[in-house]
Fold this protein.
Amino acid sequence: MMYQVLRRVLWGGKEKRDLLSEKRKKKHQLSVGFTLSIIVYFYLEYIFFSGTNAKTRLKQTQTNMGIWARYNKLLEAQPLLTKACTSLIGFTAGDVLAQNFINDEGKEYDLMRTIRLGSFGFLVHGTTGHYFYGFLDSKLPGTKPVTVASKVAIDQFFWNPIFGLMFFGYLNFTEGKSLEEYKQKISADLKTAVMGSWAVWIPAHTVNFAFIPPSQRLLYINTIQIGYNVFLSFLGNKKVDGQEEEEKKTE
């Protein structure tokens, strides 16, 4: 019900959809996906962190503290594996939400797509994030405003495009697509991914580098990334115009 209401508000009635050109419709769908990812994120925050009364909130706090303590022990004992598993959960959850909220109506759930996104989180995002942010913290220690601003700039203007190339490249490889198809995807969607990242991660990383302990950066990132991954999953699996036409001809 909630999805239907949001879909009608964001898309409009059938008459309005019919008036949109195919190209404009795709751009509109992308903005809808991003908007819903933010809504879903805050909705999950409300579900998991709100209690019905003081007693319930106290019990939740005690439970969360126990989980938090165990998580920190795992971070100390196996930092790389723990961060990889954290990213696995974040990317899997993001794709599950994307397929349930953003997919075209009537389209079957694609389990292999979720596996691809989850494995990317485990094999690439978690591991590279561990080393990249560790390197960044070692070269730029502290939380002075100029240090935080430098880290955010390096992350978003240097690491962000590299991450986009890795993300689209991994999906392209695991789907068995060609190098030419990868180039087409980069040409069509890398700019959108980078600019979409700026809207979310510049303010998020300002908080990250200023207040979050280095060992917990990836957990903080993945907490936000669950919502952002809805957008990223949609974008990563969106067909490029030329490829979509070829698939239609094949069918």
Notes: The chain has ten helices and no strands. Residues 179-211 form the longest helix (33 residues). The chain has a mean pLDDT of 77.
